Amino acid sequence: MFAVFAALGANILVAISKFVGYALSGSAAMLNESIHSVVDCGNQILLLFGDRRSKQKSSNLHQFGEARAKYFFSMIVAMFLFFGGGVIGVMEAYDKLVHPAHTVENTGIVIAILIAGMLIEGSSLRIAFKEIAELNTGKLPIFRFLHESRHSEILVIFAEDFCAIIGLLLALLGTVLTLVTGNPMFDAISGMLIGILLMGAAIFLTREFYSLIVGERVTDSDLTKILAAFERSDIERVINVKTVHLGPTEILIAAKIDLVNELVIPDYDVVNQIEAEIRKNLADKKCYIYIEIDEFDENYQR
């Protein structure tokens, strides 16, 4: 969550500077960037609230706790803030586009604010990369890691910071072209592109969070560690293993195994040893493990 705090601090500073820039210039791109930064601040506040809810202890109603609260609040961030902010930005830019008489003033100040914003957002993105490097123990390519990661908050922060840099570049390009040509249409177009960028990020994030809320299995690397615990001489066959992420670091594991006919130790000791091995292999996760002993029947209908 350090990346969330870092992004919140950065976005508060950037939002204030952008609104000052908009007030001085009347730039559509700067207005969209201001909306973008306000959206980002809302993102971090909701992520922090979701993190707090996810740490609630188990209750009679939520017997596995509320770890998936992170996914729920991440979905709200994607749909209402990212998409909503993008729609508002496009509407404002469209209004400027159909009324080309609008002017962009104090472009020098606008350019300075945009460059400062890029520096601040760049430092936030650097922190996000550092957090990703710590989580990416399998050394996967970054976009594959983001797709497979069960840490919704790091996905939001990366998408947010990445879009912020792209949005600032678009705003800078639109402002420079407006300054050079004297045509404010470039400012309006860059503002519209920023809004479309936000909506595109919202669609991408929503698809990822939908999958997490419905329930995703563990990653391939974690599944390999789980299956390794069943490689024992006293197990005749692993009939089935099912897993689901209850949260970024909480896993439910259900397995059905067929033991050999003549055991050296009691069957419950076998189960206990398997559970201990799984928890050892997944020391960074909280595991809920349920193992059933059965006889394999190839004609069994589930």
From TrEMBL:
Q: What Pfam family is a match for this entry?
A: Cation_efflux
Listed GO MF terms: monoatomic cation transmembrane transporter activity
| Chief location category | membrane
Alphabetical list of SUPFAM superfamilies matching this protein? Cation efflux protein transmembrane domain-like (SSF161111)
Matches recorded under InterPro entries? Cation_efflux, Cation_efflux_TM, Cation_efflux_TMD_sf, SLC30A9
Where is the protein found, in the record's own terms? Membrane
Asked if Transport is a keyword of the record, the answer is yes
Bilayer topology term: Multi-pass membrane protein
Residue ranges of domain Cation efflux protein transmembrane in the record: 4-212
Q: Which domain of life is it from?
A: Bacteria
- In its UniProt entry, what is this protein called? Cation transporter
Organism the protein comes from: Lactococcus taiwanensis
